[in-house]
Amino acid sequence: MSWTILHFIGIISYAATGAFVALEARFSFIGIYALGFITAFGGGVIRNLIIGVPVTELWDHSTILTVIMTLTLIVLIPLKWINHWRRWGLFFDSIGLASFALQGAMLASEVFSNDLGVMILAAMFTGVGGGMIRDVIAGRKPLALKEEIHTILTIVCAICIWLGWNSPLELTLIVLIVITLRMSAIQFQWRLPLPCNLKNE
């Protein structure tokens, strides 16, 4: 799994989650395209601004075409086929979280010579940035602010890249672990045992 594969996995996954959220919010098909593009590119824009890479590098023809094809497919699918969109939305969101966090850390590692602090910031904002913008536009509480596991997993991704885990097998394993942990955290409602998380009896 290379940078290119991670990039397209993240783009497709986050474009799909943007479309699913737009469907839930009963947006028009224009809204589906708008939210899909915002979710797919929002995190990358924030990341590039943070690490000083030109934002224009995000606008290549193959990436834009991939997003358009993904969103068009979702627009044309009968609604009865995606009644369980929430489950699939969270699954695709987990894939996007892992792949975007990894590529954010990898890009920051190249630009800042393996600086862990910058890698964590790049992984975090790439992984959750687009989703946060998506949720705010759709009038929802951002998942990244509700779920601790969101940010924790982006930090784990950055640390893995910092440790040199960059072979195709290692990157694939990281993505699978992130998806498993994220979905498990949602299923079992895992929270850190902090005072702010403890309910008053």
Which spans of ≥5 residues are poorly predicted at pLDDT below 50? none
Helix content: over 70%
Largest sheet, in brief, is:
none
Strand content: under 5%
Q: What is the rounded Rg?
A: 16 Å
Q: Mean of residue pLDDT?
A: 88
What does the oligomeric state look like here? single chain
Number of strands: 0
Structural class: mainly alpha
Q: Kindly report how far apart the N and C termini lie.
A: 48 Å
Discrete helix count: 8
Order of helices and strands: HHHHHHHH
- Tell me, briefly, the overall form: globular
Structure description:
With 201 residues, the protein is an all-alpha fold. The chain contains 8 helices and no strands. It has helices spanning 3-24, 29-51, 61-76, 85-111, 116-137, 143-146, 148-162, 168-188.
Can you summarize this structure?
The protein has 201 residues and is mostly helical. The chain has helices at 3-24, 29-51, 61-76, 85-111, 116-137, 143-146, 148-162, 168-188.
Lay out the secondary structure.
Elements: H1 3-24, H2 29-51, H3 61-76, H4 85-111, H5 116-137, H6 143-146, H7 148-162, H8 168-188
What keywords describe this structure?
single chain; 201 residues; 0% strand
